[in-house]
Amino acid sequence: MDLSIAEENYIKAVYSLAQKGKVTTNILAQAMQTKASSATDMVQRLSEKGLVDYVKYYGVSLSDEGNRSALKTIRKHRLWEVFLVDNLEFGWDEVHDIAEQLEHIQSTKLTENLAHFLGNPMFDPHGDPI
Predict the structure, then answer these.
(1) Backbone Cα Rg of the chain
(2) In sequence order, what are the residues at sequence separation of 6 or more whose Cβ sits closer than 8 angstroms to the Cβ of residue 33?
(3) Measured between alpha carbons, how far is 38 from 42 in angstroms, rounded to an integer?
(4) Tens digit of pLDDT per residue, the chain (130 long)?
(5) Listed residue (45, 43, 50) closest to 67, CA to CA
(6) What is the pTM of this model?
(7) Which of 118, 106, 28, 34 is nearest to 73 (CA)?
(8) Phi-psi region for residue 64, left (φ > 0), alpha (ψ -120 to 50) or beta?
(9) Which of these, 49, 54, 80, 105, is most buried using a 10 Å CB contact count?
(10) What share of the chain is helix, strand, coil (3-state, %, to 5)?
């Protein structure tokens, strides 16, 4: 399923926030730097696509498909960070914003070839697992 950049960013945010506890639309809106109504609209759209489970006044969580999508985007992000540090001489403290842009490339072949080119690294430059 092809997702917009905004949808991928919301799914990543739900994934990250869920590691810390319950995710409400207010917490999500704050993380995304938007209004609660905008976050609610996006959550409802993601729910219609089967990517999140949303209960009004309770919160939002990722479905199995949403979790897979979040992990796929995070994996791409971390692979790009490794590539930028190891091959283009960026410092580990410089790569996050660039990887935020590159993680949205939809080519599975590119992602798999990148992983292979990098020797299927286990960790990104920050020490996070890929």
Answers:
(1) 15
(2) none
(3) 6
(4) 789 999 999 999 999 999 999 999 999 999 999 999 999 999 999 999 999 999 988 999 999 999 999 999 999 999 999 999 999 999 999 999 999 999 999 999 999 999 999 999 999 999 999 9
(5) 50
(6) 0.92
(7) 106
(8) alpha
(9) 80
(10) 60, 10, 35
